[in-house]
Design a protein that fits this description.
Chain lengths: 337, 337
Amino acid sequence: MAKRVGKSIIYDKKIVITHYAAQVGKTEGEGPLKDEFDKIYEDSYLGESSWELGESKLLENTVNCLLAKAKMVIKDIDCIFSGDLLSQCISSSFAFRDKCVPVVGLYGACSTMALSLINGCNFLEAGSGSNAVCATVSHFCSSERQFRFPLQYGSIRTPTSQRTVTGSGASLLKCDCDGIKIYASKIGEIVDFGIKDSNNMGASMAPAACRTICEFMSDLNMEPSDFDCIVTGDLGIVGSELLCELAQKEYSVDISSVHRDCGKMIYYIKEQDVHSGGSGCGCSASVLNSYFLKRLENGELKRIMFVATGALLSPTTVKQQQTIPCIAHAVILEGLK
Amino acid sequence: MAKRVGKSIIYDKKIVITHYAAQVGKTEGEGPLKDEFDKIYEDSYLGESSWELGESKLLENTVNCLLAKAKMVIKDIDCIFSGDLLSQCISSSFAFRDKCVPVVGLYGACSTMALSLINGCNFLEAGSGSNAVCATVSHFCSSERQFRFPLQYGSIRTPTSQRTVTGSGASLLKCDCDGIKIYASKIGEIVDFGIKDSNNMGASMAPAACRTICEFMSDLNMEPSDFDCIVTGDLGIVGSELLCELAQKEYSVDISSVHRDCGKMIYYIKEQDVHSGGSGCGCSASVLNSYFLKRLENGELKRIMFVATGALLSPTTVKQQQTIPCIAHAVILEGLK
C-alpha cells in the first residue's frame, strides 16, 4: 500500500514505465530534440480533414507506436488515462473510440502528462489492473484557433507568449518488472496569483510549479541536489526565471542548477522565433517520453522530478476577464541503472 | 488489493460514502424530487456576475455543504476528484482555487459523477490518501450558451432534446467506517454508434450504457434481480427506452423492471416542458447524492448499480459534423442495512 507523507505519495509497489513513445509536428522536428522523437509529421493535418481530427490522430498514432514497441495490442491494455487541451477533450475521446478499452478522461491543461501518470499509478497500486497507458497530445493549429485567433488572421504575438507544441507522448505502466521507476507523486493544488494575461502563461504557472516542487521535496525530506534534474513542462523563458526566483524567495531553495524546462528545450527559441518557448500538454509529454526517459533508461540520469504545469483558463474565462488558476502535478522518476 | 474480474474491479477495502450533498436550481427545485435536495437556488447566477461563475459557485457551495455535514474543513481533504461540462472544466478549477487541497481534474461529460467515484476509490484502495471528495456540477444557462444557443435567442428545441440540470452533487469517501459501500466499479469504454444529432443525446448514449451495464453484470456473474435499481444518469425518455431494447437484443438481458433514469426522475417531464428529460453531469450527481444515497442509508434500497453516461461531443465536433462518441462508467453501491 502506498504511503502518504504530508500531501505526497510514495508507492509501495514497484511501478515502472516499461515503454514510451513520442511523436511531433514539423516545427518540433526542426528543433534541437529532432533526433529524439519516434516520428515527425510534415503534414499538420496528418491526412485528416481538420486540425482537430489531426490532433486526435497524432495521439492515436503515438499510442499505437507505444503498443508496437511493447508488442501489445490495444485490447491488452487495462485502462487508458488521457486528456488534452481541446474543449471537452475531444482529441482523447475520438482517438480511443470503439477500441474496446476502458478510458479515464482527465483534464489538467498542460499538466496532463503528470496527471495521467499519477492516476495510472493509483490504478496499479490499487490492483485495479496490471497495466495502464498514460498519454496526452496538443496541436499548435487547433490550440491557436481555440484559445487565440484563427491562424489565417496572421496575428502578431507578444514576447511573453509561447508556441503550443504539436506533439504527443505516451507511457506504458506496469508493476514489478524492469523499467523506469515511479517512486513518488504529488497531486497539485490550484494556485491563482491573480494574473490575467493569457499571453503570459509561464508567469501564471510559475507559482503553482514552485509550490509543488518545494513542498514535494519538503514532504520527502529531499533537496535539489538529490535530483539530476527538476524538469518543468512548459514555463518557457519567462516562467522558468520566475520559478527559480520564487523558490529562492518563498522557500529559500535554490533549484537553478538542476532546473530544466521542456518548453525551453524543444525549440531553437531565437532561430525558430517562438517567443518565450514551447507550451501545451504535448510539450512536456513529448520531451519526457523521448529525451528524459531515454536518459533514465541508459543511465545518463539517475533520478528526476517531472513537474507538468497547467493553466486552467478557457476562452470564456479570458473573455470574462478572469484570472488564471494554475496547477502543477509531479512525479519522481528513477533510472534503470 | 482490488480484484480485477474481466474488465471490472472489486474493491478489497471497505470503501464507503460517509456523507453526501446535493444542491440544485429553481426548475429542479420545482420537480418531484424537490424535498430531497439540500438547497434550492432561486437565482440562476448564485449572486455571481456570470452563469459560468454561478456554476462554479454551485459546486463550491455543494462541497462546503458536504464538508459541514462531515464536520470537516476543506484542508482536511486528501484529494478532490472533479470535472464538469464547461470547456476546460472551468467550474471545477475556479471552485477549488486557492483552497490548498490536491485536485484531480476529470473529463467524462455527464458521466463525471461515476468517473470521480471510481478514481476516488482507486486513490483510497491504493492507500494514496484516507479520504476523497468526488463531485461535479452542471448549469442549464451556461450549457445552453456553450453547446447550443444563447438563451436570449429563445430557440425552439426538438422533442428528443434534454434540459441540462442546474445541479451539483458531492460524495465524501473514506475507508473502513460506516457508510454506503462501493463494492465494485467498471471504467467505461468509448462507444460510437454513428449518431450525429446533438439534440438526441439519449439515443447516442444508450449503446455505451448498455455495454457497461451488461458486461459489468456478466463480469461479476450477477443479473438484474440482484439489484433494487439499475440507475442511469441522463438517458431521458428516448434513451431509456432504447437502453432496455438494446440490452434485450444484444445481451438477452431484461433490465426494464429495475431500470431508473435520473433524467426522467428529476422533472415533471410534461408539466415542466423538458422534452425528453434532464441531462448534464449535475443531473445524475444531484439525484444520486440525495434520493438514492438517502434510500441506501435508510435501508429502503439494499444494492444499486449507478451508471453515469457521457456524450463526448464538443461544439467544434458538432460544427464539423462528427459523430458522438459516448461512455458510461458504473459503480455498485450497497446500503447500510
